[in-house]
Amino acid sequence: MNRILSSVVFARRIFRKEAEHPRGLFEGLKAYRTQDGNIVLFRPEENALRMRAGAERMCMAAPTVEQFLEAVKEIVLANERWIPPTGKGSLYIRPLLMGSGSVLGIAPAPEYTFLIYASPVGNYFKEGLAPINLVIETDFHRASPGGTGGVKTIGNYAAVLKAHTAAKAQGYSDVLYLDCVHKKYLEEVSSCNVFVVKDNVISTPAIKGTILPGITRKSIIDIACSLGFEVVEQLVPVDQLLSADEVFCTGTAVVVSPVGSITHKGKRTSFGDGKVGRVAQQLHTALTRLQMGIAEDNMDWIVKLK
Ligand code: PMP
C-alpha cells in the first residue's frame, strides 16, 4: 500500500517493516511569505516532476504531480505560523520518497512511503549574501556517467559527505566537484549549481546526467536571458573557472550565492575583491523580488496558497 504522510515541523522517526528496498529520493522547495501577506511556493510543479523523473530512473513508484502538490500545500498551510516574515527566511519543505515492497531481492519498488518534513530556515551559508569560499575536490566524485547524479537520490549526498565534512572542517563553505572521467570539467557544488561569468557571458555546465537539473539554475538562466545576458550551457573546464570575472552558485537553499574564492590543488584564486559580484547581485535581486511578491510574476512561477 502506498502511504502519503505529512509531518509537522522537524523530523520524527518512522519505522516501516515493508521498507525493504534500500532506496530513496528527496526534494527541496520553499514557502515564502510575500510582502502583501500571501503564502507562496516557487515552481513546486517542477519539484514534483523532478521527483517523478527520479523515481522512473530508480524504478520506484511515486505520487502523481497532483498528490505531491496537494501534500505540499497541506503541510505548508498546517505550518503557516512557522513561515518567517518577508525577507527574514522561509519554510523549507523536504518531501521524501522511500521505495518499499515485500520482496527482499533487487527489484523495482512497487510501493512507497511519501513523507514531508518542514522547517523554518534562514540563510544557507553563514555568510548570507556575501562571497563564499569553495574548494575543488579531486579525490571524491559525486556522480559518474550512466549513474544517478542527475536525480536527487539520497545516496548521492552520502557518497560525498566525507569530502564535504573535511572541507567544512578546513574552513571552506562548500565543495565544487569535477567530472570523474577527465577530472577537469565543472560539475556542481554539494547543494547547488555553478555559474561562471566572463566578459558579460554567463556559462554553466550543461545537464548531461551527472548533475542535478536545478530549478533555480533553470530559472536563473531564464532571468539572465530576459535581462539581456548571453547564457551558454556547455562543458566548463577548471581553467575557464579560474580566469572568470565572477562565479556564483544557485539553488533553492543557497538562492544566488556569490563565490569569493576557489582553492584548487592548494592554490587559492579570488574573485571580486571580497564583494558580491555585479551579475550575481542583479540575479539575486531579480529572483528574490519575485519570491517576495515585489516583482510581477510574468513567467507564472509563483503558486499562491492564500
Ligand atoms: N545540485 C545539487 C546537488 C543540489 O542538491 C541542489 C539542491 N536541490 C541543486 C543543485 C540546486 O537545485 P534547485 O535549484 O532545484 O534547488
UniProtKB/TrEMBL annotation:
Its EC number is 2.6.1.42. One of its GO terms (cellular component) is chloroplast. It catalyses: L-valine + 2-oxoglutarate = 3-methyl-2-oxobutanoate + L-glutamate; L-leucine + 2-oxoglutarate = 4-methyl-2-oxopentanoate + L-glutamate; L-isoleucine + 2-oxoglutarate = (S)-3-methyl-2-oxopentanoate + L-glutamate. Its cofactor is pyridoxal 5'-phosphate. It comes from the Eukaryota. Keywords: Amino-acid biosynthesis, Aminotransferase, Branched-chain amino acid biosynthesis, Pyridoxal phosphate, Transferase. GO terms for molecular function: branched-chain-amino-acid transaminase activity. The modification N6-(pyridoxal phosphate)lysine is found at K152. It is an enzyme of class 2 (transferase). One of its GO terms (biological process) is branched-chain amino acid biosynthetic process. InterPro entries: Aminotrans_IV (IPR001544), Aminotrans_IV_CS (IPR018300), Aminotransferase-like (IPR036038), B_amino_transII (IPR005786), BCAT-like_C (IPR043132), BCAT-like_N (IPR043131), BCAT_family (IPR033939). PANTHER family: AMINO ACID AMINOTRANSFERASE, BRANCHED-CHAIN-AMINO-ACID AMINOTRANSFERASE 3, CHLOROPLASTIC-RELATED. Belongs to the class-IV pyridoxal-phosphate-dependent aminotransferase family. This is Branched-chain-amino-acid aminotransferase. It comes from Chenopodium quinoa (Quinoa).
